[in-house]
Amino acid sequence: MTDIEIARKCKLKKITEVAAKIGIDESRLELYGNYKAKVTAKPSPKSNAKLVLVTAINPTSAGEGKTTVSIGLADGMNLVGAKTCLALREPSLGPVFGIKGGATGGGYSQILPMEDINLHFTGDFHAITAANNLLCAMLDNSIFQGNKLNINPDNIRFNRTLDVNDRALRGVEVNSGVKDAISHHEKFNITAACEVMAVLTLAEDLDDLKRRLGNILVAYDYDGNPVFARDLHAENAMTILLKDALKPNLVQTIGGTPAFVHCGPFANIAHGCNSVQATKLAMTYADYTVTEAGFGADLGAEKFLDVKCRLSGLKPNAVVVVATVRALKLHGGSQNDLTQEDLPALKKGMCNLVRHVKNIRDVYRLPVVVAVNRFTSDTEKEIAEITGAMQEMGVHAVTCDVWGKGGEGATELAKAVRRLCDDGDNSQFTFCYDDSDGVEEKIRKVAQKIYGAKDVELLPKAQESLRLLAPLGIGNMPVVIAKTQYSFSDDASLLGAPEGFTVKIRDIEYRGGAGFLVALAGNMLLMPGLSKTPNAVNMTIDSNGKIDGLY
Question: What positions does the entry give for ATP binding (predicted)?
Answer without folding.
Answer: 60-67
